[in-house]
Amino acid sequence: MRTLLPPGWPRPKGYANGIAAEGRFVFVAGEVGWNPLTEKFDVKDFVGQFRQTLKNVVAILAEGGAKPEHMVRMTWYVTDKREYLANLAGVGEAWREVMGRVFPCIAAIEVKGLMEPDAKIEIETTAVVPH
Q1: Distance CA 113, CA 115 (A)
Q2: pTM of the complete model beyond 0.85
Q3: Domains in the chain: boundaries
Q4: Residues facing 26 on adjacent strands
């Protein structure tokens, strides 16, 4: 895997502008921050749901033989941009706790709502496991 950073561009903080990779793809559908066994939200706060969402993503990656370091792309759908921005410190802490020092390409999009009414964030992920 190779990070793509055009000459003269500043290095982005917390994500990559682009990644080139070869290998076997693992796709993770939109995951939310609920307990995957009960499909109920054990936590209501943004950071708690974000942390659980990441744990759910990691569990599915593992099932596909992938690890966080194989992630190349994520799309985050958040229901409240202000709530997300107000919780950046907690988001960063949860990221480091669950994912470590991994920086895939990330797009964050504010949406009107998600299919699960209590969800504050939903994340889609693509990983590439090297040959």
Answers
A1: 7
A2: yes
A3: 29-129
A4: 127
The angle at the Cα of 68, spanning 38 to 79, to the nearest 5 degrees, equals: 55
Q: How far is the C-alpha of 87 from the C-alpha of 83, rounded, in Å?
A: 6
SS (H, E, C) the chain: CEEECCCCCCCCCCCCCEEECCCEEEEEEEEECCECCCCECCCCCHHHHHHHHHHHHHHHHHHCCCCHHHEEEEEEEECCHHHHHHCHHHHHHHHHHHCCCCCCEEEEEECCCCCCCCCCEEEEEEEEECC
Q: Residue 127 is encoded by which pair of tokens?
A: 């990983």
Which is nearest to 114 in space by CA: 72, 58, 65, 75? Answer: 75
CATH superfamily to which 29-129 belongs = RutC-like (3.30.1330.40)
Burial of 3 (0-12, 13-18, 19+ CB in 10 A): middle
114 phi, psi to nearest 5 deg: -120, 165
**AA letter at 3:** T
pLDDT at site 101: 95
Q: How confident is the model at residue 60 (pLDDT cuts 50, 70, 90)?
A: very high
